[in-house]
Design brief:
With 553 residues, the protein is an alpha/beta fold. It is built from 18 helices and 20 strands. The longest helix is centred in the middle third of the chain and has 40 residues, at 287-326. It binds guanosine-5'-triphosphate (GTP) and magnesium ion. Residues 342-343, 356, 362-363, 383 line the site of magnesium ion.
């Protein structure tokens, strides 16, 4: 089936019953006499002790007790071509234009436990307060020859996909990739690769195959068919949507994720009802087709209703924001790649308790807190949803309202995990999304976080010193936080205007606000009030206009 993640039409694939696994278990077939390729049991004895060999076409599996089982044969001759698992790293039979590529089988150890018959219970794990069954997933990526658009190489992108899969509660058992000039319009990857993956699916009881790029509805369908129907095929977008779905804690986030999911599903609403045709022995052809049209209409109506609801929540949020602007405290937004440490920084500076953990997309909703500096100055700090390379456009669109917080800030703080091997590429990916959000006019400060975790912290610190727009910190240990606050203060001062105002004695509260949000140079107490010279935010300067005039006069 093509749709893995629709919470409205069907539950998340992470909640599926064991039934799916038992359906995948192979029925013994001792009469099978096709050639086998023996697996390297040394590598796999922890993870797959029951497997001894896989038939050359990947269809049959020989178990350690010498029973042979066989799945349904491949659907078309094309996918049989070159199928093989070579035990340790799996070789791919390539089409002539495809360069060699690698298949990785993951050694499952430590907390993940064994994946054998007696280990099914260990595959239930507590995630976000609910027990989920860890499905076995296999990852597939494509490196495009001559692709200059993406700065992530395929290994790095797959490693990030693995982190996403782990966050979603899946157990990754292996991965593979292929170099292609252009993706295959039918199956995204070449036929040799399809066959190779099919072998891996059979050999390791893979339940979900995840592609690192967005697949077209047709590609999804064809791949599922080619893999034999019992395995779910999904892509990075669906995986990210599922994580968002699991993590949406507020009504607004839940609405936004639902909208993104529905928009993703609309063109993929196929095959859902093909069982009707099968049940009817194919005699009522078209029955499934009609049902799809009905489903699409229902989904479109739901999308319309959701958009209206989001709009009303958005208006509410805007009113709240406007009220917030009555107090002229500048707003500083934390932006950055997911897992960079934005929430940890907010928590550290404000004593907030926003969820911060070593998982991707821990934060979905913006949280704003007041930062009180040692010198008594204040600013508001907003934590926002993290970005990622290949961020689904449906998600950007759905979260645009929330991200408006960013475009209305006085200053953007781009938090970078400088200890991450892909820090530079992550910076590029964030800049790309910021461009899409039209934030070029807002001043930026770059924060190199997690310096404590860097291989050579000293080098990082001295590099940061060379650029006045970079501050080096550790949100975890507190290193550099004073420098960070001072740098924010400096940037905010640059955006303030110089005023001289005579504040009457009966408006004493204005004087304390100037101290709070501005930078006071001098105060002189005269007969009819306090003569203040200070830098204040533009919005606040407007408020002082009458007093500025009286000062001038
Ligand atoms: N060593 C080290 N770890 C840090 C530091 N800052 C954050 N972390 C860890 O990095 C992980 C991610 O931190 P978060 O604050 O959740 O990151 P985030 O940017 O809010 O992530 P999303 O909400 O997913 O976008 C957590 O395990 C933090 O403990 C730091 O300065 N040093
Ligand atoms: Mg966060």
């Amino acid at each position: 089936m093509s749709l893995c993640f629709c919470s409205i039409l069907k539950p998340s694939f992470l909640n599926r019953e064991l039934d799916f696994v038992s359906r995948c278990r192979l029925a013994p077939n001792p009469n099978c006499n096709k050639p086998f390729q023996f697996l390297n049991l040394q590598l796999h004895d922890r993870g797959f002790p029951h497997l001894k060999a896989v038939q050359a076409d990947g269809v049959g599996v020989l178990y350690s007790d010498d029973t042979v089982s066989e799945r349904a044969a491949p659907l078309d001759a094309e996918t049989q071509h070159g199928a093989a698992v070579d035990g340790v790293v799996g070789t791919a039979t390539e089409e002539s234009h495809e360069s060699p590529n690698r298949t990785r089988l993951k050694k499952i150890e430590g907390k993940k436990g064994n994946v054998d018959d007696g280990d099914e219970e260990n595959r239930f794990n507590l995630r976000n307060g609910r027990e989920v069954f860890e499905e076995k997933a296999y990852l597939v990526g494509v490196a495009r020859k001559g692709d200059t658009d993406s700065s992530f190489d395929i290994e790095e992108s797959l490693s990030e996909l693995e982190q996403l899969a782990d966050t979603a509660g899946l157990r990754v058992v292996g991965s593979t990739h292929q170099n292609l000039v252009a993706p295959n319009p039918r199956t995204y990857i070449g036929s040799g690769k399809v066959a190779e993956i099919k072998s891996a699916i059979h050999a390791f009881d893979v339940e979900t195959v995840i592609f690192d790029d967005e697949l077209s509805p047709g590609q999804l369908r064809n791949l599922e068919k080619a893999f034999g129907g019992d395995v779910r095929v999904c892509d990075r977008t669906a995986l990210i949507l599922d994580i968002f779905n699991q993590r949406a804690a507020t009504r607004e986030a839940a609405l936004q994720v639902s909208l993104a999911q529905m928009e993703y599903q609309l063109p993929r609403l196929t095959k859902m009802w093909s069982h009707l045709e099968r049940q009817a022995g194919g005699q009522v052809k078209g029955m499934g087709e009609k049902q799809i049209e009905v489903d699409k209409r229902i989904l479109r109506d739901q999308i319309g209703a959701l958009k209206k609801e989001i709009e009303s929540v958005r208006k509410h949020r805007k009113q709240y924001r406007n009220r917030r602007f009555d107090i002229p405290v500048p707003v500083v937004s934390l932006v950055g790649y997911t897992n960079a440490g934005k929430s940890t920084l907010l928590n550290r500076l404000t004593g907030a308790d926003v969820l911060a953990e070593d998982k991707l997309f821990a934060t979905l909703d913006p949280t704003t807190r007041r930062v009180q500096m040692k010198n008594g100055k204040e600013f508001l700090l907003t934590d926002t949803v993290g970005f990622i390379q290949k961020l689904p456009t449906t998600l950007i669109a759905a979260f645009r309202a929330t991200l408006e917080e960013i475009s209305e800030s006085s200053l953007l703080v781009h938090v970078v995990d400088i200890s991450h091997p892909m820090a530079e590429q992550q910076i590029d990916a964030v800049d790309k999304v910021l461009e899409e959000l039209d934030t070029s006019s807002i001043p930026k400060l770059i924060v190199w976080n997690k310096v404590d975790n860097a291989k050579d912290p000293e080098k990082i610190r001295s590099e940061a010193k060379k650029d006045p727009d970079i501050v080096c910190i550790s949100a975890l240990t507190g290193e550099g936080l004073d420098d960070f606050c001072n740098a924010v203060q400096e940037r905010l001062k640059d955006m303030m205007v110089w005023v001289e105002a005579l504040i009457p004695f009966d408006k004493g509260e204005l004087l304390s606000t100037i101290h709070q949000v501005g930078m006071v140079e001098t105060i002189e107490y005269v007969d009819n009030g306090a003569l203040v010279r200070a830098h204040v935010p533009l919005r606040f300067a407007r408020l002082l206009t009458p007093m500025r005039q009286s000062c001038v006069s």
